[in-house]
Amino acid sequence: MEKEKIPMKGGKHPQAFQEKLMTLSLNADIMSSMVLKNKEVAEEIINIIQNTINKGKKKKAKVHLELIKVQYSIRNYNGGRSIVVDFIAYCHEENTIYIIEPQCYWQKNIYCRNRYYGSMIDADSLQVGQDFSEIPKRCMIVLTEKDFNSKDAMIQHIKKVDLMSGNTVESGEEEIIINLAAKTDDSELGQFIRDWINPNPDDIKNPVFAEALRYYKSNPKGVHEMYIKWEEAQHDDRINFVSVMLERFSPEEIAEKMDWDKNYVESLKSEIDSKKESN
After folding, report:
1. What is the C-alpha to C-alpha distance for residues 39 and 41, in angstroms, rounded to an integer?
2. How would you classify the pairing of strands 11-13 and 173-179?
3. Pick from 21, 233, 252, 273: most CB atoms within 10 A?
4. What is the pLDDT at residue 18?
5. How many helices and strands (H and E) does the chain possess?
6. Distance CA 233, CA 226 (A)
7. Could you tell me the sign of the dihedral formed by the alpha carbons of 223, 227, 230, 232, in that order?
8. What is the structure's pLDDT at 79?
């Protein structure tokens, strides 16, 4: 499976990778998983959104995050579905867990997905012996290009409401959904949306976002880090593909159909079998 490589600033990388890299915005799965490692990026997102939902109110202090985790896996040991959270961190001053979920694909029902993710995160955050009142607050921010349903074209802010009184129920949970496909205005949120989906760092107005994207597109070290991530993603895609193909075809048949080396397909099968045994 050796691929032809051509020279590139910062090292040698395949043409397919170089072409893909140039198209990536901050919202692309592979890019967001890298840039969200930088807590300044996450804090900037949260602060912009907080400014939007609190417009006309006393301005809140800027969020400062700790205990940051990216691609954080939460296992469901009762046989149910496990989840992987794109970004999760804790704000000590607010006693709040912040989640950021960039979504490039249609989720069929984003509200049900958010409900399940929220419940898994809540269960993961309360330790044995703790009282329910000790559970941290939770704010989930979803950046979506596909799923949206709101009178406000750019943002939806969701909290529990008592339908009888119309009062908000302060249960400590909220969701904020940002519509990246919206027609934007000149507001801070509008500029954030334009920046987040722009693949050209030179055209991004926010310096935090611009530098985060530029690092992985131009800096030799950043480009190489992105290439390693790209290779991992390619490998995972092949694992998933071969796993499905093995339900109908032998490794030899898959190798012939895909024009792959037989030993390579066998190695993928061994990895698939190993994962099944460990689960």
Report:
1. 5
2. unpaired
3. 21
4. 84
5. 9, 8
6. 10
7. negative
8. 80
